[in-house]
Specification:
The chain is of the alpha+beta class. The protein has three domains: 290 residues, Beta-lactamase (3-Layer(aba) Sandwich), CATH 3.40.710; 83 residues, Lipocalin (Beta Barrel); 79 residues, Beta Barrel (Lipocalin). It has 13 helices and 31 strands. The strands form seven sheets. Strands 1, 2, 3, 4, 11, 12, 13 and 14 form an eight-stranded antiparallel beta sheet that branches. An eight-stranded antiparallel β-barrel has the order 15-16-17-18-19-20-21-22. Strands 27-28-29-30-31 form a five-stranded antiparallel beta sheet, with no helix packed on it. β25 and β26 form a beta hairpin. α1 packs antiparallel against α12 and α2 crosses α8. The longest helix is centred in the middle third of the chain and has 20 residues. The two termini are 38 Å apart.
């Protein structure tokens, strides 16, 4: 497929296919390199379409669309294309809450139940760690589970935010509040409920009036509107065999955590506000000191990965505030370097496509940072030819304590099977590779050989996997055969099977190997989507499990 381009440049008033494809100095090289890479990604069918933007200071320097917003209609992606942006929504929920903090209506360190009486969460850790507090919700250290029983990410029934909120009553915290970082969509949804409760108006109305409105984000909303028709990209998901299909379109009940629709042009205004430390074009969204608080680690002892709303990171030696998003058929990246007043925004219409987006982010942001510093851009890795004979000696299965990878050759290419997905490896040396795929991109893979030259392990970045002989795996308990099968909705089934003596659960694209517990449950390991939550199977009359409970969610067996 030939890539299609539409550009918008902030310094020149023009639009459509005749718009110039250059950016003002000093960012011309960074933009040109990114455009070439985006062309390559779309032409290789790694993404159907995407839109990208670069913001410097108070200026939208460059924005452009690549590929198709709708494959069937052959509709091009542009800077004005509307995407679902997933968890980038959480940044706007945090801004709304902090406005109410500034007004004295919300105290982040008061018990949550004072604002939401009757919530009914079970907190067995109260004596040692105290109650859940709003600040913990905003930073993913509340101890809450990832999803609610009703209105979870899987729930396409049309459940409302109020129903999701009510469904947490009686549910038990996973961790003591304030102690462990565990990502929770329902936690941020409760943060949004606080906005609604203390402001006295519906959450979506508050956002429209006091956050999206003052930011002049006129193409954005937390619920799809008729005005968006014809501009919203079609989201795509990969099914079995790698075939793309249109993703389901239902609204999430966790609106405050992940239901925002927006464009790169609109999100550039959020970036400009960040560069202005809470201010955009003379309009103060939050005070400068409030923004500084939001961009600092709130719970360093729990890892310090989050501020208030923002994920905190470091790129090219600079501290970042950022967030990614993934929601049915869409992937998104928002990264800002406040010190340099630089931001990059990438929106794509394919589900969990963080491999290409990571590479584009590194190319565009790395080039922009280098331009600001007056340095050469980051060097590209030079691939070499695959040494098939050497690689063949390393083919096989490797394991860590909680995960499995496999090396193999497919069609003359080196591949690593990661969480059940074949990921292309580009050789950079005899035993050195880098991942290049829609799921993973830029990860360094090293084959570790022993003194005799035999492959003993594989390193993926900093994680080691030791060589494993599947024939040596102990037999799984016979009872586990009753658990195998598919559960949940047809658009996002949970698949269970037994492999090499382990129970394997495929959930939201990824494979996990939960550890069997003494009570018949299977507990998900740390570092996974459902870490420290359990899978439990309910027996059926036919000898097979009739249902699976994953965390707080129940899924019926698919027939």
């Amino acid at each position: 497929m030939r890539p299609v381009h539409f550009a918008l440049l902030s310094l020149i008033s023009c639009a459509g296919p005749e718009a110039p494809k250059t950016a003002p100095a000093p960012f011309g090289d960074a933009v040109a390199d990114t455009r070439r890479l985006a062309d390559e990604i779309v032409s290789e069918d790694l993404l159907p379409g995407l839109s990208a933007a670069l913001v410097s200071g108070d200026e939208l320097v460059w924005a452009e669309g690549f590929g198709l917003a709708d494959r069937e209609k052959r509709q091009a992606a542009t800077p004005a294309t509307v995407y679902r942006v997933g968890s980038i929504s959480k940044l706007f929920t945090a801004l709304a809450a902090m406005q109410l903090v500034e007004q004295g209506k919300l105290d982040l360190d008061r018990p949550l139940e004072e604002y939401l009486p009757g919530l009914g969460l079970q907190n067995p850790f109260r004596d040692e760690a105290g109650p859940v507090k709003p600040r913990q919700l905003s930073s993913h250290v509340s101890g809450l589970f990832r999803e609610s029983p009703v209105g979870s990410y899987f729930d396409g029934s049309g459940a409302t935010p109020a129903q999701a909120l009510a469904s947490v009553s009686g549910q038990r915290l996973v961790h003591p509040p304030g102690r462990v970082t565990k990502y929770s969509n329902i936690g941020v949804s409760l943060f949004g409920s606080l906005v609604e409760r203390v402001s006295g108006m519906p959450y979506t109305e508050y956002e429209a009036r006091y956050v999206l409105g003052p930011l002049a984000m006129t193409s954005s909303a937390f619920l799809r509107t008729p005005a968006m028709d014809g501009r919203v990209a079609t989201g795509y998901m990969q099914g079995r065999g790698g075939r793309l299909a249109a993703a389901p379109r239902f609204e999430l009940a966790t609106v405050a955590a992940g239901n925002l629709y927006s464009t790169v042009e609109d999100l550039a205004k959020l970036a400009r506000m960040i560069h202005g430390r809470g201010e955009l074009e003379g309009r103060r969204i939050v005070r400068a000191e409030t923004f500084e608080q939001m961009s600092r680690p709130q719970f360093p002892a729990a890892g310090g990965r989050f501020g208030i709303g923002f994920a905190l990171g470091e790129r090219f030696g600079e501290k970042t505030v950022e967030h990614t998003g993934a929601v049915y058929g869409f992937s998104s990246v928002f990264v800002s370097i406040p010190r340099l007043r630089l931001s990059v925004i990438l929106l794509a219409n394919e589900d969990v496509a963080f491999g290409p987006l990571r590479r584009l982010t590194d190319r565009l942001l790395g080039g922009a940072v280098a331009a600001v510093r007056g340095e050469a851009p980051p060097s590209e890795i030079t691939p070499v030819a695959l040494d098939s004979a050497s690689f063949a000696t390393a083919a096989g299965v490797y394991r860590s304590a909680d995960a499995r990878v496999e090396l193999r050759e497919e069609g003359g290419r080196a591949v690593i099977v990661w969480t059940g997905h074949p990921v292309r490896l580009v050789p950079t040396g005899r035993d050195a590779f880098i991942t290049r795929d829609r799921l993973l991109d830029g990860n360094r893979v090293i084959i570790v050989r022993d003194g005799s030259g035999k492959a003993a392990a594989v390193r993926v970045d900093d994680k080691r996997f030791d060589r494993f002989d599947p024939a040596s795996a102990p037999a799984a308990p016979a009872a586990w055969a009753a658990f195998e099968g598919e559960y949940g909705p047809d658009y996002l089934p949970v698949r269970v099977h037994v492999r090499e003596g382990r129970l394997v659960v495929e959930c939201e694209t990824f494979e996990y190997e939960p550890d069997p517990g003494s009570d018949g449950s299977f507990v998900f390991p740390r570092g996974t989507l459902y870490e420290d939550e359990a899978a439990r199977f309910q027996p059926g009359l036919d000898g097979k499990a009739a249902a699976l409970t994953l965390g707080t969610m129940r899924f019926e067996r698919r027939r």
